[in-house]
Structures are given as C-alpha cells and as structure tokens.
Amino acid sequence: MLLQLKNIFKWVNSGGQRVFLLKDINLEINEGEFISVMGPSGSGKSTLLNVIGMLDTFDEGEYNFLDESVHNLKEKHRSNLYKEYIGFVFQSYHLLDDLTVQENLEMPLLYKKFKGSERKAMVADMLDRFNIVGKKDLFPSQLSGGQQQLVGVARALIANPKLILADEPTGNLNSQQSEEIMELFKKLNEEDGVTIIQVTHSEKNAAYGSRIINLLDGRKV
Amino acid sequence: MFRNYLKISFRNIWKNKVFSFINILGLSIGLSAAFVIGAMVYYDLSFDKFHPDGERIYRITTSFKSPSGEFYNAGVTVPLAQELHNMEMSELESVAPFFTAYPLYVENPETGNKFKRPDFVIYTDDSYFKTFEYEWLAGNEQKALQAPNKVVLSEQRAKKYFPNEELTNIIGKSIVYQDTISTTVSGIVANFEDRTDIVFEEFISLKTGITQDITNTMESGWDNTNSASQLFIKLTKNGSSADVQKTLTRIAKEHDNPEMVAEGRTNTYTMQPLADIHLNPLYGTFDFNDSRTTISALNSLLLLAVILIVLGCINFINLNTAQGIQRSKEIGIRKTLGSSRIQLVFQFLGETFLLTSVAAILSFFLSKWLLLLFSDFIPQGLTFDIFWNPWVLIGVIFLLVLVTLLSGFYPALILSKYKPVSVLKQQIIPNSDKGTMRKYLTIFQFVIAQVFIISTVLVGKQLNYVMKKDMGFKTEAIAYFRTPWRDVSYDKRKRFVKEINNLPGVTEAVLSGNPPASFTTMSMGVTYHKGDNEVNSDIQLLYGNPEFFNLYDLKLLAGRMPLNDSIREYVVNTSYLKVIGISDPMDALGKTFKANNEDLPIVGVMEDFNQHSLKYGVSPMAFTGSSYTDKWTQFRTIHFKLSNLERSDWSQTIGQIEAIWKDIYPDSDFEYTFMDDTVKRFYESERKTSILLQWATGLAILISCLGLFGLVIHTTERRIKEIGIRKILGASVVQLNILLSKEFLKLVLIAFIIATPIAWYGLNHWLEGFTNKTGLSWWIFVLSGLSMMFIALVIMSVKTVSSANTDPVKNLRIE
C-alpha cells in the first residue's frame, strides 16, 4: 500500500460558519494504480490532490504515506518525504520562465543534492526519452503548450518518484496534445509502474485510469 | 546549485531593468559614500600606529584657565624639560624636548645651492631619537646630537641638499642656515614610511641654540609658554601615566605666579597620548598645510554614510517585497520541487549579494571620482590607492555582506514564506502583504530627506546672514600684507608705505598692526578698579594709528586718539565698558586700568565691531599705538585701500606693489590678503558644512525619489485595469493622476510632520553656537515641505501621467 487517508476533514471558517472543503475522506491507494479524481468545480478535487501531495494541510484525520504518519510529521520531514517520492504536474505547467528546458529539468535534482555528473546524465536521459533533445536550450516561452507540458511531466519524473500527482494536466491543451500526454501517462504507469493520481474534468481522460474517484462538495460519492 | 542561482539572479536582474537600476544606483550612492568616508576614517585613524612602544609616548601640553575661559597650547614652558630631566623619575624612559624652527633659507656651501624656507626643522638632542625609533642610515645614533653645530638629516633632505652623494659620504659635510648657523651633518635617518604626524626632516643639535637660536624661545622661563617649545616623554614599561601626571600637576602648581592665580589664571600640564595628536583640534599637529579632520567631523561623516546606505537598503526592501508577487510563482514551483525555506532564503540573499556587488563595482569608480570632487574635504595624503590596503578591502567585503543582510534579509523572509498551494493556484496574493512595512520605510526615507532639506535651507540662510552682516568696519577694496617678520628694519616698511601711496590705484596705505578682524589675536589681562571692587578680564589689543582707524572706518564715540604711536594711551570699545560697568562713554574718559602693574589711561571709546567670525560675540578690545621700541614694534602689517571698486582692475596695482616688494624684500615671497577674503575665511567650516549638506540633501532626495518612483511604477501597473475602467467612465488625466499620487503624497506629508520637530530641535541646537543668528522662520519649514511635495509629485507624475494616458481599451483587453 502506497498511501492511506482515514477520515480526512478540511475546512475554512467563513462568516462564522464552517465550510468544508473535504469531508470524511477515506482512501487507500496501492502502488501501480492509475487513479482519476473527478467532480464539478469546487468539489475539492485539487484540495484533495494537494493534501495527498502534502502541499496543503488538513484539519482532522490520519494520513499515512509509506508507513509514515504524515499528520504527525514536522514541516521539514514532510517536505523531505514529498521531495523524495512525489512528482507534480500542473495544469499551467509552472515551468520557470527564466530557465531553459534543460535547467528546468535539472532543478529537482539540485534540491536532492545529486552530483553534477549524475545530474547531467539524468537530464540527458530524460531529454532523450521524451524526444526533446533539440529543445534543451529553449526557454518555456519558446515552446508550444503541449511541449511545455511534456517538459513538465519530464521534470516530475526525473527524480524517479513513486507517485505522480497531476492537476488537470491537459486542461490547457488541445485534444491532440491531450491525447499524447495521456498516452504518456499510461505508458509510464504500465511499463514503469509509476503510481499516478490525476484530476480531470474529461471522461475520456478519466478512462485512461484504472480507478475513478468522484467527489461532490468535498465528499466521496 | 550555485550556478543555477547565479543564472536565475542574472536573468532576474536583467528582466527587471528599471528596478535593478534603481536598486543598484541607490545602493552604489550609499556604498561610494561609505567607501570614501570609510577610507577617510581608516586614513585618519592609521596615523602613528607603527612606533614601537608608541602607546608609551606622550606629548606634554599646556592648558590655561582664565576668567574668559580655557585656552590650550601644544607647547610647554622651556624649563619644564630640564626639571623633569633632573628629577630622574623612574617612570620615565626618556624626556625629549625640541623647538620647532622656521629658517628662511639653508645653503650647501660646497655647491652654493640655496634652499628657501626648509620646513620641519627642529632643535633637539639625542633623547628625541630615544623616544622615536628611527632607522639610522649613516652616523652614530648615540652621539649624533651631543655637540653644538651638528645636524641630523632625513634621507629625503640629505638627497635634496647633497644630490649624487653616497649617504655615508655626506657625514661630516656642512650646511649653513641663514648664513650664520653653520652645522655639520652627523647622521642620516630614514623617513618614516607609514603615516605619521612626526614629520621632522632636519634635527639641529640643541646645544647649537645656546648661541644661535632662531626660535627666540629657548631662553624663556616659567612664565612664558610658546608652542615652539615641545616636549615628548616616553614612559618605562611599567611606568604609570597617572603618577607622571600627578608630578606634572604639582610642578605646574609650584610655578604658577601667585598674582595670576589671584586673578583666576592658572595653568596645568596634560599628557597627550601620541595616538591622540592626529585628531585632537585643541593642540594641532606640525604640518600646517594639511587640513585636519576631527573625531566629531569623522563621526558626522560616518553617520552620513550610514544614512545613505540605509536609504539605499530601504529601496531594495521596498521594491523587492512589492515585486514579490511576480516571483511568487517561482517560489511555489521551487517549493513543490523540494526546496526548503532556508534554501530559498539563501537564494534570495545570494541574489542580493550579487546586486550589491554590482553596485560595489560601480561604487569603486564613483569613489575615484568622489575623491577628486571632494578634494577640499579630503586629506592630501589620501589617494585611491588606499583601497588596495588589505584592511580596507576586508572592510569593503564586510560592508557588502552587511548591506546584503540589511537589505536582503527581510524580503527573503517575506518571499520565502509564500505557500506553494496558494501561489500555484493563483487564487490569492498572499494577504500578509498589505505594504504596511513599505509605508513605514518610505516615510522614514522622506523624514530623512526632509530633515536634510530644512537643514540645508537654514544653514544657507545663516551663512548668508553672517556673511552679509556688517562687521562694524569697512572691508571693501581693502587689502593687507605682512612684512617679513624677521626683517626688523622700520625704515624699509616706511619706505614701502610711501611708495605704495604714490601708486595711482591706491587711495591710501598705512603701516599698522593686524587688521581689525583676523585669525591672530593679541590680548592681555587687565584689572579695573571700581571703588573697592576689582574687575579682572582679558582685553584684545589692536595696534594702529589714526590713519588706520580711518582706513577701516572705525567709529570713535568719545574722547580722542592716542597722541602718538609710542605713547601708552588706549581707546576701548563699548564691550569693555560693559565689562567694567560703565554705560556712558564720556564717563570712561580719564579712567585707568591696570596691566602688568602699570596704570594705563583710557583716552577714548570706540564703537564695537566684530574681531572674528560672527559666530562669536564682540570681545572687549583696546586700540593703541605700537607701544614698543622700533625693533619690537607691532607695526608690521601694511594696509592699503584701492581706489577702484571693481575687482578686475586691481591686478595691475597689485602687480606694482609686488614689484616694490621684490625690490625691498628680495628674499621673501609676496603674500597679500583682501579683507573680504579674510572675512570669508572665518566661515570656512560653515561653508564646508553647507556644501556637504547640499550634497547629502541631493543624494537623500535622489535615493528616496528613486524608491518612490519604483513603488509608483509597481502600484500603477497593478491598478492598470482600474485606470482603464475609470477612464472609460470619464475620469480625466488630472483626476487619475491625483488618484494615483494621493496615497504617496500622504506619506510625504506624514514624513514632513515627523521631520519638522526633529529638524527644529537639531537646528536650534546648531544655531545656539552662534552669537549672531538668523531666526528659524516658519517659512523655512513651509518652503522645504512644499519643495519636497513638489519633487515627489513631479517624480510620480512621470509614471502616473503616462499610465493615465494609455489607451484604456488596450489595458482591459490584455488583462
């Protein structure tokens, strides 16, 4: 088992009232799964993803990740944990505009203290694998949306994470580009055994996954 | 990692060119000021630090107490050295007296080469070289100055007087001072290589002075203190300075004249540590050509440097926190990719350091230029080379790190606090940042700028006031020069005056004492008996004749002039009448006062005039004739009035006078001074303060306005959509401009309100130092406040007007 959520609650106080963002979420995810989270806007999809990614906190409940109790961990340990095991893919790519493709790919490795030679090899490998060697010295603004997302996925993968969290990865892409990205996810999941959790609006994209979780007003349905 | 940071930093600096420019410029202004001022401080503090046992060397100085205050003299009474020597105190390793001498010329009789006015000549004995350790290049250190008519030269002087000679060959050769003092070179010492105030170059043996004393001081006794008579001592390793001081105080007391003590006049000896000589204005140093700073001046300059740096740092903090939103995305991404907060803090500090370093490089060039621009304020020996001194370089690096922390730490903390979730989802601008801190900092900047503006206006007003104010005598078109003081011939002077009087460009010339106002004052202690009461006071003396009195347009209120030049009759001023309590000038006539046990008659009363800077009040003064024999007459200065009032026409007449000088005094140089220039020189330090203040004000305004400009750009760009909507709804450019500037003008106004009492307090204090002062008028504050507002408004309008003028459709569409 990769991770387990038990009775997770998250709320904000608004005008004296408690508004629930997540309500009593229970979830178990095993290694090698490909899960799609669906639901209307505001149903808590992204919040759930951020909680799983440890970017966001929750107010009540238990979260275990690889036998570590996330809810008991200090900020620093938590960040070490996600740094080690989780890769993120965003709807709007979130590449650093001031860095080239190559440098963007290198960045997670820097924070994991890989040596220079290792970094070079890993970046070269990734460029090769995603067929973007020719674009390595371009800046994000010089790439199409699909290409940017390709770099985004490559960056998420470069440090060999166990889990990839993708928040509407194809939201800004046209249908052909979407398809390419989804095919890539599928391949990663099936061939490399990477666990993937994606948030999506599209039934078609959800179908790539092995399991669908539906959310409505912060509850699992 | 480091390379990655560096790259990001460079690209960031490059991308935000305007902000980087503002930051770098602001920081480099502060840094260059700090570099130059720091170099000055280092320079001035590094004097005489190299002497072995330097901390055991003291100069003995004298301070006098009298009814009119305390006075200081760098010299001591001549017998003191002998007395200390005879006591053989166990605390003293050496007692080194010397006399500074100013020979007119010195000659190498072999070559016949004459050298005019050699400087840094002293009479001393071997004890001097026991106190100060020199490297001996030739001659015998122990005995060099034992016999009369010996001289030790510095290496530089030896080479000057005996070019092309081996140093050892120079020993035994002779040089002759003023045709009469023949000396044999008995030693050559290396010049000190490090900075020093012990600048002497020629050491004549003390015994020479028994017969040939050009200082005219060596014979004097316990009642006469001359700054030419210097005394240095060196304590033994365990010698207690307190014990020596006790002995000195005792000696001073023993030799105080009881009559003087009864009048409230005493003197004491103090021990001035060698390290104190350079910066203590009370006693001065031996090199009169070099301008001296004082500790308090250095402190004000340091404060100025700190202020300018802080202003620059504030710009940095303000612009970086304001720009934070632009960088929040990067922060979010870095955090999700595993960056810790500490790593981000270091990244931002690194960026700040980079920017600071760029500013520092710029500052180096600026410093070079500043050193030239402010050469009037900077000691001559201080050049740009001082920056290659390792200690200065270490200081520079330390300063860079400090500035980096000061300006980078707060923004780094704020920026690294952003939560990745909120940033990446672009939902909220982190709500902790309402810009409150920025507002405080901006207000602080403008308080400083405002205080500077008010001060500049007031100091300017005061300077103008004292320079324009009537001194009480005529100064226009009057000049004077001193005849060579060693030339005692009265006839030569008489002849000179006669010849000047014949020149067509001169209305009148007279031979008299010093001008009514000058840097030299003569005074004596006098006693006035009023019934049974004694009134002791000091009275300044002005030596002249009726022609002199009229030349300067002095006013006689009652009585008459002294009957002739040599009779002892006095015309006192009204300030002295106040001291002795006489209100009607007529009542003073026929009264006498006592000086040196002699009754001196008051024959007239003159109106007060200022004898010195208007900073000080009018001192009691008495006008009298030359009062000495021909040889020792006070009449050594020739005053003349030019007939033409235009300055440009004067050079011809001056040239003619110089020609006469060359004829009468071929051995000396002609130096004349216009009375107006003398008056101007009274305000030298105030003028310097004023110039520095103007610069400080300009720079403070520049830095603060740059920062303001940056903030205006930032807020205006954030509100560009609002501007578009308002414009479509019918707002005019002026209305928009007011809308955008209002917020900042409020800050400037608050700054003004805070600055006013601070400036008022400080300036009031400064003005108290002046006897004649202008008022702290309300309009100074209003004018300063309005000009600050105006400057701020103009700066802001550059951006706001252009934003208000852009096509609203475009702004709204881009959004």
From TrEMBL, chain A:
Q: Which GO terms describe its molecular function?
A: ATP binding
Name the keywords, alphabetized.
ATP-binding, Nucleotide-binding, Translocase, Transport
Q: Which SMART domains does this chain map to?
A: AAA
PROSITE patterns, per the entry: ABC_TRANSPORTER_1, ABC_TRANSPORTER_2
Q: Name one Pfam family in it.
A: ABC_tran
Give the ABC transporter domain ranges: 3-221
Gene3D superfamilies the UniProt entry points to? P-loop containing nucleotide triphosphate hydrolases (3.40.50.300)
> Which family is this sequence assigned to?
Belongs to the ABC transporter superfamily.
Which PANTHER family does the record associate with it? CELL DIVISION ATP-BINDING PROTEIN FTSE (PTHR42798:SF6), LIPOPROTEIN-RELEASING SYSTEM ATP-BINDING PROTEIN LOLD (PTHR42798)
Q: What is this protein called?
A: ABC transporter ATP-binding protein
Q: Which organism is it from?
A: Maribacter cobaltidurans
UniProtKB/TrEMBL annotation, chain B:
Q: Which domain of life is it from?
A: Bacteria
What range does the record give for the signal peptide?
A: none
Q: Name one Pfam family in it.
A: MacB_PCD
Q: What does the UniProt keyword field contain?
A: Cell membrane, Membrane, Transmembrane, Transmembrane helix
Membrane-crossing segments per the record: 21-43, 301-319, 344-371, 391-415, 440-460, 692-713, 744-763, 775-795
Segments forming domain ABC3 transporter permease C-terminal: 303-420, 698-798
The yes or no answer to whether the keyword Ribonucleoprotein is present is no
Instruction: Report what the protein is called.
Output: ABC transporter permease
* Species, as recorded: Maribacter cobaltidurans
